[in-house]
Amino acid sequence: MSRSAARRRAPDPRTGWRGRVSGIGESHLPVGAFLALVAVGLAALVAGVVTVGPDWLPGVGAVVVASAYSWALAARTGGRPVVYGSLAVALGVVVLVSDEDYLRTGAAVMTCVVSSVLGVMATVPAVRFVEAARECVIAIGIACVGALATVGFEPTITVVEFEYATFGLGLVAAFAVVYRLGAGLHGLGRRGVAIVLVGMLVLAVTLLYAELLRRYGTPGLVESLLDVVRWSRENLGAFPRPIETVLGIPALAWGCHMRARRRQGWWVCAFGVAATSAVANSLANPAITLRESGLSVVYGLVAGLLIGFVVIRVDLRVTGSAGRRSRRAEEAAAIRPEPARTSALH
Questions:
Q1: What's the pLDDT tens digit per position in 184-239?
Q2: pTM here?
Q3: 169: Cβ–Cβ under 8 A, 6 or more apart, which residues?
């Protein structure tokens, strides 16, 4: 192996990543062109929502957004953006021309998954909580555009199965990317292992509790919980999605905050897919209006950030940064570098 090849494969002692750091703008498509494509696709999708223009316009918008997102995710994770972007375009054209339900559904699933993973991968380390909140907003914004692209394919689905499938695939994909970028499991350490186990426990409790309650819950308990949901929908316009509020947003905020200090933060961020996938598949339920879905996302974001703030403060107190002066000193020392948002992580 040549000396230059060894330097490319050796993990950077500052960042923990393997390989070179190249700009997305160097990956055959400038950032401006990517934003322009997303804007064009979003305009076509919005035109479909307000029923302006031909019937095929939302499908074209979905293909444009899905292709741009596929390119961006490949570029961000050090893959082959031209190959994946071109493949997404080709598959999208086949889906629209064939107009088969199973192809549209498959395209919707993959668009939802790509959007949810890209939302997490597009984040950068956050020294302060305000910056962590900004990263959560950016991730949710990416997932919101993905939600429109997902329904732009007009999939034929069962809502619960679609939600479970997109979330499961998104979580597996996020952990696979983090595993590769983080050079395996040895970078976790005891603290990282404990965090991942706690995250898995929270995820299992959230999913199992909802499923057990739906199947075996007593009528009185189920009715009382439904009353809370009804009150929120009638008086506030929506009810936040629990998995986004309890797990996804807090994990993403805490993970971005931790990434400025320790590489284990990426493993925490992977659980942020619980938020981005919940947003990306939020429009798949025809029983929920666009307004209610949007309010649900906003409420989940706000409540999740409150939980994330508490988690971050507890973490800082446990690690010995209690007090304003100590926190400022800790923030000044949080200088663990990572590639910029528009640069490849690997």
A1: 565 666 666 777 777 778 777 776 666 655 555 555 555 666 677 778 888 888 88
A2: 0.84
A3: 109, 113
Three-state DSSP class for residue 18: strand
Average pLDDT over residues 163-176: 93
For residue 277, give the nearest of 29, 110, 153, 55 by alpha carbon: 110
**262: three-class secondary structure by DSSP:** coil
Residues 190-208 as b or e (16 or more Cβ within 10 Å = b): eebeebbeebeebbeebbe
Annotate 313-342 with b (16+ C-beta within 10 A) or e (fewer).
Answer: eeebeeeebeeeeeeeebeeebebebbeeb
Name every residue whose Cβ is closer than 8 Å to that of residue 108 and which is 6 or more positions away in sequence.
150, 151, 153, 154, 155, 157, 162, 284
Confidence of residue 338 (pLDDT cuts 50, 70, 90): confident
DSSP letter (8 states) at residue 107 = H
Q: Burial code of 276-304, b = ≥16 C-beta within 10 A, e = fewer?
A: bbbbbbbbbbeebeeebbbbbbebbbebb
Output the CA torsion 83→86→91→97 (10° steps). Answer: -160
Render pLDDT for 191-203 as a digit per residue (tens, 0 to 9). Answer: 667 777 777 787 7
Percent of the chain residues past pLDDT 70, beyond the cut: 77
Dig out the tokens for 278 from the structure.
């919940």
Phi/psi at 315 (5° precision): -60, -45
Closest of 201, 205, 137, 146 to residue 170, by C-alpha: 146
Domain ranges of the chain: 3-333
For 83-100, what is each residue's pLDDT tens digit? 999 999 999 999 999 989
Say how far apart CA 274 and CA 139 lie, in whole Å: 12
Q: Are 8 and 19 in contact (CB under 8 A)?
A: yes
Cα–Cα distance, 293 to 298 (Å, whole number): 9
- Please spell the DSSP secondary structure of 123-187, one letter per residue: ----SSHHHHHHHHHHHHHHHHHHHHHHHHT-----HHHHHHHHHHHHHHHHHHHHHHHTTSGGG
